[in-house]
Amino acid sequence: MTETSTAAATGSSLSLQRPLKAVANVLLTLVLTFIGLTAITFTIGRVMPTDPVLAIIGDRAPQEAYDRVYLEMGLDRPIYEQYGRYLNELAHGDLGTSIMTSQPVLEDIKRFFPATLELATIATLMGVLIGVPMGVWAAVNQGKFIDHAVRVLGLIGYSVPVFWLGMVALLIFYGNLGWVAGPGRLDVYLDGIVETQTGFILIDAALAGEWDIFRNAISHLILPASILGAFALAYIARMTRSFMLDQLNQEYILTARVKGVSEPAVIWRHAFRNVLVQLITIIGLTYASLLEGSVLTETVFSWPGIGQYITTSLFNADMNAVLGGTVVVGTCFVGINMLSDLLYKLVDPRARS
């Protein structure tokens, strides 16, 4: 009885150690990634050929003012001390103050990041809802016209420069046809009417019952979301096609067909179920890349998102804003990848071990 109890206790201890070890590994990965991200960004910011002091006081300030601000910013200290000071402030939720806006960087990010999140989320949904069926359809009809058409469309969507495609779309659908609204998130006369609750203009307008503003926001969102969605669609469709072709050539698919399983069941219940595991990672990477890579789209469409905020800050040598925006985007990237890994394990029981 004692041996049985000891064995049970040992088994229970081992089963408890596994999840604790997994959590510890995840936390260690997060910490190391965060330190690496901030260290690289901070170092680049310090070695850039721009003077953050001049960005604050201007190039006509007296030398005494320059020296005073130089010391206040701690630029006289070794770079590792500057980085340690920055990490300490970061641990207390202080990202510094933006030179451009004279506001805390954290407040600026709260204002700009929801716009990027809204744009990237809708673009990713478009890519998934259209790209996945296109990829499956192309794989099922391998070598036929539809397969070649999907591959050509995917190649075009993945290779055409986003700034050119955005300007052409604005010229045609906004300038000539007038089907959609132009740059920005809202028309100027509607800006500021809806109280900001979530930062997502569609949700805030719906909560306030301002359906005219809701429709205007959708009209502004269509073009930039479609441009980003085209790139997401092309990548997701291409990867879905590749994954499906690999599964459709497996022996279990041939066995299912020999047993008389219907073709839709073979495609969606058998082949696509195994593809779904790989697609989760692809969709997660696509979403994360849209969050960090929408700079050109936001610039072309004057979309007030985090990409445009970081770019403008970089041109103005506002390194606190650049560092803060980079840290937030990098953290989201890591978080989305971790969420993808979690969903991967939920979908595929084999990965849980």
UniProtKB/TrEMBL annotation:
SUPFAM superfamilies: MetI-like
Keywords noted in UniProt: Cell membrane, Membrane, Transmembrane, Transmembrane helix, Transport
Compartments, record wording: Cell membrane
Keyword Transport: yes
Keyword DNA damage appears in the UniProt entry: no
Membrane topology: Multi-pass membrane protein
Location, primary (coarse class): membrane
UniProt-listed Gene3D superfamilies: MetI-like
Residue intervals of the ABC transmembrane type-1 domain: 113-344
Domain of life of the source: Bacteria
Transmembrane segments: 22-44, 119-140, 152-174, 217-237, 271-290, 321-344
PANTHER family tied to this protein: D,D-DIPEPTIDE TRANSPORT SYSTEM PERMEASE PROTEIN DDPB-RELATED, DIPEPTIDE TRANSPORT SYSTEM PERMEASE PROTEIN DPPB-RELATED
Similarity comment text for this entry: Belongs to the binding-protein-dependent transport system permease family.
The protein's name: ABC transporter permease
Organism: Sedimentitalea todarodis
